[in-house]
Specification:
Blueprint: H1 2-11, H2 17-23, H3 27-30, E1 32-35, E2 38-41, H4 49-61, H5 64-73, H6 96-117, E3 126-130, H7 134-146, E4 154-158, H8 163-170, E5 178-183, H9 190-205, E6 215-219, H10 222-228, E7 235-237, H11 254-260, H12 262-281, H13 288-302, E8 307-313, H14 320-332, E9 350-355, H15 364-369, E10 376-381, H16 391-409, E11 426-431, H17 436-457, H18 468-480, H19 487-495
Parallel strand pairs: 3-4, 3-5, 5-6, 6-7, 8-9, 8-10, 10-11
Antiparallel strand pairs: 1-2, 2-11
Helix pairs in contact: 1-4, 7-11, 7-14, 11-12, 12-17, 13-17, 14-17
Amino acid sequence: MTAANWAAIEGVAVKPLQILFEEDDGRVERMTIEQSGLRFDFAKTHLHPAMISAFAELASVVDLDGARDRLFSGAVVNVTEGRAAEHTAERGNGAAESVSQARALQARMRGLLDVIEAGAFGDIRHILHIGIGGSALGPKLLIDALGRDGLRFDTKVVSNVDASALAEAVRGMDPKATLIAIASKTFTTTETLMNAESALEWLRDGGVEDPYGQVVALTAAPDKAIEWGVDESRILPFAESVGGRYSLWCSIGFPVAAALGWAVFEELLEGAAEMDRHFRTAPLDRNAPVLAAFADLHYAQARGCQTRAIFAYDERLRLLPDYLQQLEMESNGKSVTADGAPLGRPSAPVSWGGVGTDAQHAVFQLLHQGTHLIPVEFLASKTPGHDFDPGHHEALLINCFAQGAALMQGRASDDGARSYPGDRPSTTILIDDVTPSIVGALIAFYEHRTFANAVLLGINPFDQFGVELGKEIAKGIAQNGPAGFDASTSALIAAAGL
């Protein structure tokens, strides 16, 4: 049945954007959703009622409603690993027992923060957060976005195993005044533990007699953290059912709560919870994550678009494209369905992006006149993040809106080099301000959009076996040197002196 549904979707007439506006005076209102301080404008996508109806029929056939209910109920939705995906329970929307456990963890987090502030760890002024992937991207994004007016602790996030990153992070830090937070779901992540060992050595070199006394662990494997040397009272354990790229809501968010304050962390959770409730209850044609997924799938499946670009017209959201790369491509970059059958169609497009207006002078040439059709997403805030001349913010917003208009309308010319084809799609997300609750809602929107895409494609967005093979080969190189590899790899290993 789904094959017939996809055929129906791909067979729906695609009308030029200008025609869609001419045929429907109410298009802007119909294709705009306001929720949780965000305005989602899908009017410049090629979605129209017949197309939305075809996607809604597919959603019915694959039981998107049931999949959504299973997600929030704590049922097994990560079928390859036999577990639930309970990140929504961390913000109060999930199975009662899981929500209760999340509340208990939050009380423990808050208690540990109180102990730190009371001086039990010494005169802590710096926090060094060590993780990688989801254990680092979320905290780094939030601290950068929400901490522009100052932090309660000087907080740095380190992920890269290149020790240059660690050296840069600790520059200016006092070892005796530094708390190290080690974030690893399994507490076996090679890069994280290597950085953690080096950070402990940095503490020792700085005169700290008991470096483990300045360490907290954020993990779903507390036994491993204890074995590594962390005291049980300084471990914040989260549920195995919370995936790494969905984990900023649990104890992985500890440096966020420490740097920005507990009230900010609570606002972040509540903003995400509001978006959870919208995703659960809004009808499909007024559901922001679902409509976004419909547009994603139209361009990837019916139009052959292999990439999607995200541009934040706000410096505070500059790290969001990096965060979304992992969320979307690690979740939905699959080639088999949830039951292991070949997918047989494109999965997630390549997510990429940058910051406006910088990107306009770098990549927008291709977006406007290149041979690739690339759906674009613009993010902007009504409220500036600075006290400078308001003309700066006006220019920023004007540029953002102008780019979307130019992509759609184009401009014909007898001179091919000066001709713009137009009819190029974009979505604009205009937010009231970069606040904790709105950022929480925005991230939750992207999580649910990713989930809706996965359900409609029939894939599992909660495993990531694709990252394992390279890790295994790296271990083999470390153990065996150049032996047993292809000639090119062996030559590179030898040339590097490994």
